[in-house]
Tetratricopeptide repeat protein
Amino acid sequence: MDSFAARQACRDGRYDEVLAMYGKAAPDRSWTCWDYYYYAYALRKTKQYKKGREIARAGMIAFPDFINLHGIYCWCLYYLYIQKFDERTQAPEDFRRAVDAILKYSQQGPYTPYALAVWRMVDVLKNQPGQAGLMGSYLCRLDPDQLPDQEKTVTLKGRERVIASDRERWYSLMSRILVKEEKYDDCITLCRQALNYFPQLHHDNDIWFSYRIALCLLRQGRVGEGRQRLENLLKYKQHWILFRGLFFAAQAEGDSAAMRRYGASAFLAGGEFKAKVNFMVQFAQALENMGGYEKMAYFHYLLAKRVRMDQHWKVKAELLAKTDSYAFPEPDRQELMDGLHGFWMDEKHAGQTRHKGTIEKILPGSKAGFLREYGGNQYYFRTASLYRVRPEEGEKVTFYVEDFFETGKEKPAHRAVDIEPVLLYDKK
């Protein structure tokens, strides 16, 4: 075969000539390593990935020290088995073997499918329970210093969004896995590296790296340090997971009142109940152990059971035994949610003043507004804080006031939260 002519044709992009040159001949001992290379290269460039993989593999067997074929072989594997892998219709064994082969025959770099294969594997494993360890082992195959650290712009549903760089994403996922693997010192070190390295973090990662540091401190028994860090984070973001962390801190300190306050705050904060279903059981167990809260413990167990049934998830025998162990009459859904909501509000705001006022203005977009206390101050609020209240001017409401830190400001401002209709309390 004329490998020199094949090389010139490949350089000129005349791939059909290369295919015609080699297509009618079967590989034999007369083929050099370059014959395999140019034929496989032309096949890859014309998107004939199955044949390209076959020729590249044959060349690798015939010339095991000729590594130039490795890149073609790996790209063909990527396009055949990885790029558009759908676990609902394709064999996971082929996908896994293709990923492992790419990691064996290529190295991380801008011109190889190495990092692409790892990220695709990570995306698949994220959707499978109990795969955190395996996902971590693949992430460890990436060198974060070689990953791009420029943020990305993508178009989702017709709108442009800025998302984290691959390097930031690696730190985020790896730190989560280290928590699950109970490697707390490693996680703290990694999170501090991320906070120090990136001038700007995305998706609230500045909050979540700090949260994982706090969680690791709690797990190490450094409860005071962890609790202080979590309380500082609440000034900037009141996510239910932060309240859950504070619940665990209060539990470690034996502070029952704080456990109820933070647990109630977690359930009142944003987020779907299906994400909180395991915490419902933990909170119910804590209420049981306190004594005097048997009905509310039962209500939390029952809510966890119903959420699992609504999601068609398995309901563990232990949870079924708990709900069956109480003699309380089973409430309907509305009675259950009203009872829980009232309990959460009472515990979250124990000792605080409940104010009354009127919604004064709804801002454009209907995501926020202002309300005014009767004969008093005006307060900013977000409509996500409304409970059974229409976001309309003139609505009479009750509410609580809390401090929060506006972006870029050092001093706290005040806002209205947990806003309910006046009549809801008049009926109590």
The chain has a mean pLDDT of 92. Residues 151 and 165 are 4 Å apart (CA to CA). The first strand starts at residue 152 and ends at 156.
